Every structure is written in structure tokens, then in C-alpha cells.
Amino acid sequence: MRRDVAATVLAGLDPVRDRAEELYRDLHAHPELAHQEHRTAAEVARRLQDCGLEVHTGVGGTGVVGVLTNGAGPTVLLRADMDALPVEEATGLPYASTVTVDGTPVMHACGHDVHVTCLLAATELLAGGTAEWAGTLVALFQPAEEVADGARGMVDDGLASLVPRPDVLLGQHVLPMRAGSVGTHPGPTLAAGDSMRITVYGRGAHGSMPQSAVDPVVMASMIVIRLQTIVARELPPDETAVLTVGSIRAGSTSNVIPDRAEIQLNIRTYDEGTRSRILESITRIVGAECQASRSPREPEFELFERFPLTDNDAATTRTLADAFAAHFGDRAGDLGRWAASEDFSDLAAAFDGVPYSYWGFGGTDPERYDRAVREGRTAEDLPANHSPDFAPVLRPTLETGTEALVVAALAWLAREST
After folding, report:
1. 3-190+309-413 maps to which CATH number?
2. Structure pTM?
3. Is 30 assigned to a binding site?
């Protein structure tokens, strides 16, 4: 793709930018949880129709897909996710969310409002620049990414029968990187993620009579400590994995030893063999600790919210990297591996393994990011996705995300010069 083609399409960015920022503030102030994205989906469908796309709604529940056919050529699918998180916002922004669902605060703490805004803006620009490209654009707005079943839901609901088979699937995520930057990475880029719920059983008793009990709180505590040795002592140092215990629940008052405890944990891996070894180790450790504690029942294990590995196609990613380098210059670089997880690659299953690539772009205020670097602090010290303080700056974040989608699509769709 030649840079002047993208520049021509992006020449209309100025008027789109103001509308995009207004939309972003509205979406941020009105977040919706997974499978509840009705307001967002309706707004997306309306704007896609205004751009002249053929629109399909209700795909996989609340998913929306727009199709713009512009002559013969490749088909490119661009994807954004729409759902928010059960997080209470602490940004202090004038458009901060005050939404609650059944008493639970809701916030766009992962940047999906950014993703929706950028894809709608990119679609508007591409729809207005059809003289510069040929082929078919598919703009897909996915529900329920945060619970790992939104992409599969759209696939199971017949996505492949609604749209032409894509030649490539493309997606992006705003990250706690310097705003204005973009990064690609070939091969495994985002980790596979598995969540597990473990229930261990004891024998309840009065807090003053521990000899009459089998204490599941102590049992669960020992399990948590031992689980930390899996990555530290059972995997080779060059094999990357993360195991996090995010929740322990047991009992309801101080002087009653309960009869059970629940542990929820999450693992992130880049290799199926590593994943299998970790799951086997969890089962072994939990079983051994239960036996050592004289548990009266076998523990129970439940896997839920499985995210697939995001394994970017090398050739596709090279094409993207070249296009981004031509457009963004030194603001484009290597993303590296992130232990976060996504269900984007599940969409490829609808099309028998179409090649895909998923990249990141920055949302952290450049001055704040640069100051942290000067002070010797790491980027991890800055608010990250899922934080109640996560607040991507509007400029240049929205502009960068919009440009990245347009440049990426045109890497396949741009007309050859005559």
C-alpha cells in the first residue's frame, strides 16, 4: 500500500474527529455489561446505516455487522468489542460513568468505547473514500469479549453466512502505552486465558473448638501458597506463564469455622503444553493439600471463561508493520507479548482459519508517560486496563486508533495507481 492512498482517505479526518470525540464521551458515560450492549448496538447500527453499509443486527445476541461492497477485490474484516466491566469509575472525568446494574457500578475500564469509536470513524472515512479502494469492508462490532464468549456467540449464530468470506481479519486494542504509538507483533502475542473455580470441603465447627473442625480456610490458604510454586519451580525459566488467585471466599463471621471454601484463579499461557502442565499441577496440589488436611470430600474443579491464544499470522503482520511504518514513522514499533487475553481469534473459526493480526495502540497521556520514564518508573506504574482510573486521553488516542484501522484496511484494499 502506498502512503498517498491512506493520506487521501484520511484527509477527511478533521470533521470526523469532532463527531468521534462526542460519540466517545457518550459511550463512556453509558457503559453496558456483556450481553447487555443494546444501547451501544443501536447507535452502532444507526451510524453504519448512515454510512451506506448493509447492516445485520442481533448477531450472537447484541452483535452488529456492517458490509460495504465496493467492486471486485479483497474482503477485509475489522473488529471492535463493545462491552464494559463491573468496575466503579474513579477517573473524575466530566463524562465519567455513574451507571449501576443491580447495585453494581459499571465502567468502560478496558477501552472498548475507544474501539467502537475508532471503528465507526474509520468506517465513515472508508465509506467516504471509495474512489481510493476496491473490495469489501466488513465492520464487526462484537459483544461480550470480557466474558470470553462473544466471538463464539457470533460464530455460532451464523456469522459466516451473513458476510463474504474475509481474506484477512484485523483488530486492535488500546493499551497503557504512549498515546500516538502503535505496535505489531508476529506469532503468539496475547496469552490464552483460563479461569478456574475450585471448591474445597472441610467440617464446620465453633471457632473455639478447632479440634472438631477440618478448617477449609487454612486448607485454602495453604493451596494458594503452593500454587505460586508452579510457575516459579515447575516451569523452565524461559517458559512464560502467569497464575493469579483472584478470589477466596469462605465463611461469614469471625467465630464460625465454615465447611467449605471457594478459590478462583486464572492462568495465562502461550503454549498448549504449558497450559496442560499447569492444569495438571493445580489438580495435584489441591488434591494433596486436601488429603493432608483430612478433607471429608474430594475437591471440585470448574473451568470457565476460556480465552484462546492470539497467534498473529506472520505474513499478515509483516504487511501491517510495513504499512504502519510508512504512515506513523517512528511511532510504530514492536508490541511484544502481553499476558492479557482476547477472544478475537475465535472469529477466525467462522472462516476456517482465515489469517489474522491484532495490534495495540497507546492511550496514556504522552506527557504523563514521558514523565514516568524520566523518573525511572515503569509503565506498570500508570493506570492500566481494568483499573478504575483507566482513562485514555482523547487526543491523540482516537485519531491514532482511527488512522491505524484505515491504514490497515487499505493495506489490502487500496487501488493500484494508474
Report:
1. 3.40.630.10
2. 0.93
3. no
